[in-house]
Design goal:
single chain; alpha/beta; Rossmann fold; 6 helices; 5 strands
Length: 143
């Protein structure tokens, strides 16, 4: 990456790779409530692993990937993974009820909904238009 490039010339994924190479052992983020710390290099590796997992379930550039979770560490990991793939990151308000989720899933053309510590009944998943194969990923906490 050219250091003289402006911020808007790069994606989040490219910036993560840049800093992982430039300052690999420098601490990037701390989740004190979970006793977790990640350096730039560690986070970049986690992001690459998640991106590979997303690609393995059919996520490609332009695919809409939803996240329905509170501020868990992998919320950020998924954001960067989507950026590296070129997927569209769709955040879902965790307080949405069935009708709000139904509207968002249909309106956003969501391919995958990732969840963390939320469980959904099969009838709820069907009612919002989430296929049986997607239910498997959603209910297994892809994060």
């Amino acid at each position: 990456m050219n250091r003289s490039m402006q911020l808007y010339d790069n994606t989040l994924g490219q910036w993560l790779e840049y800093w992982a190479e430039e300052s690999p052992d420098k601490e990037y983020i701390v989740y004190s409530d979970r006793n977790l710390r990640f350096t730039w290099k560690q986070l970049n590796r986690r992001v690459d692993d998640m991106a590979k997992g997303l690609i393995s379930i059919g996520i490609t550039k332009g695919t809409h990937v939803g996240i329905w979770a509170t501020n868990v560490p992998d919320w950020l990991t998924l954001l960067y993974a989507c950026s590296k793939i070129g997927a569209v990151y769709v955040t879902v308000n965790t307080s949405y009820k069935q009708s709000g989720l139904e509207y968002l899933c249909k309106d956003s053309d969501m391919h995958t909904l990732c969840t963390k510590s939320l469980s959904f009944s099969p009838s709820t998943m069907q009612s919002v238009g989430i296929s049986e194969s997607l239910q498997r990923y959603s209910n297994s906490d892809c994060l």
